[in-house]
Amino acid sequence: EAKAKGRNTFHFYSQELNAAANERLHIENELRQAIKSQQFSLQYQPQIDSRTGKIVGYEALIRWNHPTEGNIPPTKFIPIAEATGLIVEIGTWVLKEACRFSAVLKSKGYTADISINLSARQFKDSNLIDTISYTLNEVGLPPSMLHLELTESMLMGDVEAAIEQLKEMKKLGVSLSIDDFGTGYSSLSYLKRFPVDVLKVDRSFVKDIPQDTNDMEITAAIIAMAQKLSMKVVAEGVETAEQVAFLQRNNCHIVQGYYYSAPLTEQGVFAQDPEIMKVAGN
Ligand code: C2E
Ligand code: MG
Ligand code: MG
Ligand code: MG
């Protein structure tokens, strides 16, 4: 009985594994096609100074519109692109497309910055510095307008190598952010050695404010620490007026989230004033 059940369970498990492996392989093949036939686009989510309603930046977020399967979220395909190395090519495209968008904004007289997400593979890529500097030149964007978002896990493996790479990036004149801050394992003793300009407080700390008092304490502590280290803070995943008010009281003024705006298409950005956020009560 037990043995038979065990065998069944194993059989079922291995079928599931197979299904997962097949889906991965399927997505990998589809990703190669997606690069060739330009199925990717970017959306841009505003980052707002909550005191003034001014849009101070946009985060570029990749979208994959598959011809038959529709929209496939980045959380599903980025890890596969990362594992296969396809992310380097995709990431280079993201960088160029986001910088192009940002140069258009600038040519129309706007001053909002652009943030892009880097993957671990890109960060380790020896061509990264050349790729960034080539792209900025080609598009004619001032380096100071480009923010590169990294995660804690990317910095923690070989810390000395990471610090060297961060320094090379800083030499280009770009700004560096730690994304999803508080969810990784970065050691606070290293944090002060990383030449990083911005901490982005992860949505997981923001989402249950004001119900969860622990999350409120953690968020306030992250903000205070960032400021002591002379870093700017951006709160992500801000969805309610109460959250905005709490963040303001605790001196975090730059916010990003559905409360103000979901990510927008480029057309959507220009359908309103790209630097003033219209929001109820603002
Ligand atoms: P992330 O960089 O932390 O981006 C924030 C994610 O939260 C985005 O999801 C955004 O649409 C979503 N979001 C923004 N405001 C709210 C809110 O108020 N509530 C909720 N529930 N969600 C909100 P998205 O676009 O699905 O991207 C997911 C992740 O995929 C990103 O997390 C980032 O890690 C990765 N990603 C996206 N685009 C790129 C890219 O071009 N390159 C790389 N390497 N990774 C990317
Ligand atoms: Mg990000
Ligand atoms: Mg984030
Ligand atoms: Mg996040």
Note down, in words, how this protein is organized.
With 282 residues, the chain is of the alpha/beta class. The protein is 50% helix and 20% strand. The protein has helices spanning 2-36, 74-84, 86-107, 120-124, 128-139, 152-156, 159-171, 188-191, 203-206, 213-228, 241-249, 266-270, and strands at 40-49, 54-66, 70-72, 113-117, 146-151, 175-181, 198-201, 232-236, 254-256. The chain has an eight-stranded mixed β-barrel with strand order 1-2-4-5-6-7-8-9, surrounded by four helices. Helix 1 (2-36) crosses helix 2 (74-84). The longest helix is centred in the N-terminal third of the chain and has 35 residues, at 2-36. It is globular, with a radius of gyration of 21 Å. 32% of the residues are buried. The model has no long low-confidence stretch (mean pLDDT 93).
Blueprint of the fold:
Elements: H1 2-36, E1 40-49, E2 54-66, E3 70-72, H2 74-84, H3 86-107, E4 113-117, H4 120-124, H5 128-139, E5 146-151, H6 152-156, H7 159-171, E6 175-181, H8 188-191, E7 198-201, H9 203-206, H10 213-228, E8 232-236, H11 241-249, E9 254-256, H12 266-270
Parallel strand pairs: 2-4, 4-5, 5-6, 6-7, 7-8, 8-9
Antiparallel strand pairs: 1-2, 1-9, 2-3
Helix pairs in contact: 1-2, 2-3, 3-5
Bound molecules: ligand C2E and magnesium ion (3 copies).
Any descriptors?
282 residues, alpha/beta, eight-stranded mixed beta barrel, 12 helices, binds ligand C2E, binds magnesium ion
